[in-house]
Amino acid sequence: MLSIIVTGRNDDYDGNFEERLSISLSRNTKSLPSAEFILVEWNPILEKPLVCEKLKKIFGDRIRYFVVHPKYHSQYCTCDWFIEYPAKNIGIRKAKGNFILCTNSDIIFSPEVVNNLKSQLNDNTIYRAIRIDIPVNHLDVSFPLLGKYKLAINGGLTNGCGDFLLLHRNMWLDVTGYCEEFPEQRLHKDSQIIYKLLDKCNYPVVNLGIITHWRHASSWANTLTRPRIGDPRWNFRECGYEKNKDTWGLTFTREENRNGITWLM
Hints:
By secondary structure, this protein is α/β, with parallel strands linked by helices. It is built from eight helices and eleven strands. A seven-stranded mixed β-sheet has the order 8-4-1-2-3-11-10, sandwiched between helices. Strands 5-9-6-7 form a four-stranded mixed β-sheet.
């Protein structure tokens, strides 16, 4: 089984977050009907309806929903109200699949990627994709993507790797997911895990095809000076980090089911 993990928060990020997330999930769940999809909502605003609640009305039990109580946020992030990597770690620990794909809320998989995800995957391989940035108002995405919609192509080893990283479950467990240390830092923790895998085992890196990403207002590619990310010059390869604690992915929390949505309390 393939497990696919996305994250979010009910803060209407950049204006049409829920619309982008809903379109992305609709497209990708239809393309991959046998895959497990997990949505982790991190540090929600308790006075507002949850993203998970809204999406459960649309997708029902097609998606597994987890909500992280706000009381844990400050332990993992001091530079923003949302941080995706501990949230993705929760999905990794909850996933049932042998292969686990961490992606983002505004990503659509091309037919090439879908076909490759349905094919035989190798246990000891790092799987990546080439991200193409498209206008935030181009919601009716079709493939092949017309040139007028291509704002930028993000390829290479780590460029855009937070948007698509597929590993066998054992590889995720071996590196203990994404780094949960350095709460003042958001940027580069996606690159860090790839370099750790390469330094440790020199796994091959395979590109599965093209994914699209809506370039919303706060996209790093839009500003390159986005606040609340930490230090862009942070040297993650020489920061002294080795592995997370055994409780990575908030496995120490108590689970509470509320109308089909699992709260981590």
